[in-house]
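To fix ideas, we now present one chain and its tokenised fold:
***
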Amino acid sequence: MTPVELSRTVLHAVRCAVDEGQLSVVVPERVVVSEPGAGGCGEYATNVALQLARAAGKPPRTVAEILRPRLIAADGIEDVVVTGPGFLNFRLDRRADPLLDLVREIRGQGRRYGHGDALAGQVLTLRVPYEVRAEVVADAVVRIVATQGGRATVEHRGGRATVQHHGGRAAVEHGELVDLRPVPAPEDPAPIGPDAARWALLHPAPHDRPRITADHLVQREGNPLFRVRYAHARVRSLGRGAARLGFAAEPGPLDASEADTAVTPACRTSALRASALHTPLSDYPRILTAAATHRAPDRLARHLVTVADAVLPFLTCVLPIGEEKPSAAHRARLALAEATGTVLAGGLSLLGIDAPEHL
């Protein structure tokens, strides 16, 4: 169970307690789970009971005890312990494989992984100046807001709102007014090409001055855009290589059996390398929500770099090496690699940047 899934499980327990009349509170939009603090236990903990106690008119420990039976009954949770004034501490089912569950979730949702309803029903009007960086940021924000169920239109200062077309009928929409005023581009980014130009304008935080240089075109590790696109292209290449070897991706345990003597010692560390992917992949929905809520595509761009940096060391162990024969572990590694590629491709598309098959 991932932190995101655990957060959803806690929210579900709160909703059930409210529906059954045991708690009289407004169900929060989200619940934060983190590592247990001093005196805690297990893998994760949450202070949701302390947050709800005043509204519920009950001591925090009482609220925690109301939620505890529902949480223990949830799949993937082995035990829940109440500590301190009312912290809920979780010990996860060790028979469960959170990374395997995550791979299956990403494969099931495809590029819609991370999409949600945090902005459902909201209509935003993005007011921007006539300036290339502001235009590019607004375009990305429109895409990202849509992933969270919101709608966004673009309006130039002193101009009219962008016209949206619905079923052949033109309509001008106005909603919450949001000023987008990133630091302007110092020069025209068009000469470095559309993908590099968009990255140069979107990757820095809005208050940072973008660099419009040919460095964004250089194919080397020091170029974050190259690393992201190279990681995606390598994943696609591995899929083609696996097809030539006669196997395809299949989620499963990532580590090879100790009885499989054909597996090289280097690739026995693949599970450790894979574990570094768990947090970046499971954090992607949270990052996407934050990028939409704060109108900050730079958060998404920087997270894609984190994902790419985590997957590149792992990719060396995906395909069989030397005399190795394709095994269940190789199929599982390919499934994880392809899931990561899905996240990279989805994130790049939201930024309006191509995710190449070859690089």
Q: What stands out?
A: Strands lie at 44-46, 77-83, 87-92, 123-128, 151-156, 163-166, 169-172, 176-179. The CA atoms of residues 148 and 289 lie 7 Å apart. The longest helix spans residues 270-293.
